[in-house]
Amino acid sequence: MSNNIYLRKGLDLPINGEAKSVTKKVIVPDVVALKPTDFRGLVPKLLVREGDKVLAGTPVMADKMSQNIVFASPVSGVVKEIVRGAKRKLLEVRIQADIQQAYVDFGAKKVADLSASQIKEAILGAGLWPAIIQRPYGIIANPEVKPKAIFVSAFNTAPLAADMEYVLESEYNNIQTAIDALNKLTDGGVHMSFNAANYSSTSFHRLENIIGHTVEGKHPAGNVGVQIHHFNPIKKGETVWTVSMLMLAAIGKLFNTGKYDVSRKIAVTGPMAIEPAYVDAYPGIAVRQLKDFFDPSLDLRYISGDVLTGTSVGKDGYLGFYDNQVTILEEGDKYEMFGWAKPLRPALFSSSRTYFSWLTPKKKYDMDTNLHGGPRAFVVNDVYNKVLPMDLFPVHLLKACLANNIDDMEKFGIYEVLEEDFALCEYVCPSKIEIQQIISDGIALMLKEMC
Prior knowledge:
Elements: E1 4-7, E2 23-26, E3 31-34, E4 44-46, E5 53-54, E6 59-63, E7 66-72, E8 77-84, E9 90-97, H1 116-125, E10 133-135, E11 139-140, E12 150-153, H2 164-167, H3 172-182, E13 190-195, E14 211-217, H4 224-231, E15 240-242, H5 245-257, E16 264-269, E17 277-281, E18 300-304, E19 311-312, E20 325-330, H6 383-387, H7 394-402, H8 406-411, H9 423-428, H10 435-450
Parallel strand pairs: 1-14, 2-17, 12-13, 12-15, 13-14, 16-20
Antiparallel strand pairs: 3-9, 4-6, 5-8, 6-7, 8-9, 10-11, 10-15, 16-17, 18-19, 18-20
């Protein structure tokens, strides 16, 4: 097994709006939303009522299928509103935050003195178990299963992604504590992948008790699924866990301070962001609290996450539980006369050299949400293979998902992928097909039939 890989396939989107490494403001949370839709496969059981007082770390929901997995309030305050959709589906629990935050005291613990079962109980009891994601399928990890290994990506190559070194500059000790804790939950160790371009300059390379890897290449080199594929592929019947660097810091803070603290630096990015920068905030904050960064009179799209895999939440929406990035784009609802047939389009980027953007490789573009065409026939081509650095047959896997053919889905790699791994395939798709949705539907079928 190689500890160093160079990925020749991929694509870095040259989009304007990268956040400067400066924290512009500290956001005092107003209303914060906890959304069951952030967690794949969750059937939520509500544990609070409107008007209930909660602390940061108070259980708000539980998983009906595994009720020892709870979801805690990120802030202290009062449950303001419980939002339901069709058939009374739980959509959001909105909490009016206190000005001064108060926390449940879970008690600081020394990881070296704890057994694996005690570490599990501590993470479960504090509501931080949803930080651990299980593959295949990208669901919340089953605490009854022992994974063959745990994987962490120490860098993010998504468009305009937050700089992990800046975001976590003061979290080194917490991350080390979390690594020591998670090492007790697997025999395969904690694998951490670093960006080969700046590995020696980052403080993370000093972390102990890890199995280190370096990765060089364009996006999606930072995707943990791509890294697993190259370092320790998932086979049928195997389970691995993944944890983000943000959640490692939160787990470490739990053991070091006894608090459920998921506060984080959030990058406000995108071509339509005014002076893109970072803010200190919490997951679930309202987009409107970022009003200093955008002009509300314009027709904009507000994305929780990056432009390829994020969720459009709208001006009145809330940041997702796992996200530390907001991307602001102009809605691409303007008609273009002659469209792609125009001979010169200097303001547009083309990954296929349709236009002349390849002559200015360092230029950044004010991209919007225009698809520049509509869905058309799903034709066999090699464009996906140029941006997917995995030894898979993407077209075959997608067609197996469309056909609900579980045998072929297994054969062509459904255990190894999530939607994010196919995001670039969707971007370059000449047929304008919603490829990530096809993968999502395939995973949903596998969960229904195989779990």
